[in-house]
Amino acid sequence: MLNRQSKMVAGPSRLALTTISALFAASAVVFVPGVTGGDRVSAQSQPVQITLVSYAVAKAAYSRLIPEFQKEWKEKTGQTVTFKQSYGASASQTRAILGGLEADVLAQNLSTFVTPLVEKGLVSPRWQTRLPNKAVPVTTVMAVVVRQSNPKKIQTWQDLARPGVESVSLNPKTSGNARWGFLAGYGSVLKDNGDNAARSYLFSLVKNIKTQVNSGREATDAFVKNRVGDVLVTFENEIITTNEAIPKDYPYVVPSANLKVEFPVTVIDKVVDKRGTREVAQAFTRFLFSPKAQAIFAEVGYRPSNPQVLSRFSSQYRVVRQLRTVNDFGGWDAVNQKLFDDGGLFEQAARAAR
Fold this sequence. Notes:
It contains 15 helices and 16 strands. By secondary structure, it is α/β, with parallel strands linked by helices.
């Protein structure tokens, strides 16, 4: 921000300076359409910096999305935008913002990791209505990564609970990826076989955990680089990206009964209003729904919300015959209370496995 200094000017000189300043301001500031057609910034405004905070595995997408947005914004407005970026375990990222990290934009992998920010007055309660598709630009499903030739013959969620199938696990206390993964398997068994079978599945699954880490990136590194475990449950987009980045592909299974994983985005209202960055931060979140951004998301394995872009990339996705949503299980409040909150089934299973 520019520091403004005021000087005391007496009589006619003050009037003259005021008039000249007003005329100069009127002639020097020219407004042009922003990226979305509705945003406007001064063509002669100063460079601006915004901070993006996101979950760990999102870096592959945003490292490509940000330069495209910067280019478009510069061409349409004349303003230079720079980004600070932070990637980490999703729950930890929300806690960091609550602790004072000034994020302009939050890209999450779980809507309930936005809820605490709403409760603290950092984000508007209307945040899901400000963007298309309830502020979810892309989705994915859960995949089970296996070793070459799939020696443990993993095909279904129930196979993960068999004796002798060791897994790399993400911690649901810190990771949205983990919560989606545990719910995908537990929910499938619940719908097919009822409460008792689902509880038994979860307890056996937790017993099979070889090592537990905090984020999707750490889990991929443990499985791929350190060769820990027989299986890894993670986002489909994560293993697609991994297989493109390394010479040796890792086979994976997408169970036909699966879960629609959503990745919401929002501006942090209290921060953008304080820093004067709302205009560009909102434009960036809207850019994520543009055909160009949707194609970039698809190129790194996400499933776009744009039907035309999704169709173009359909050959890279595994077929899911029964795609459920978290609402089929009562929504995240109900799921968290039953599975992941203190004293929930996951914690009970972890105690039993010791």
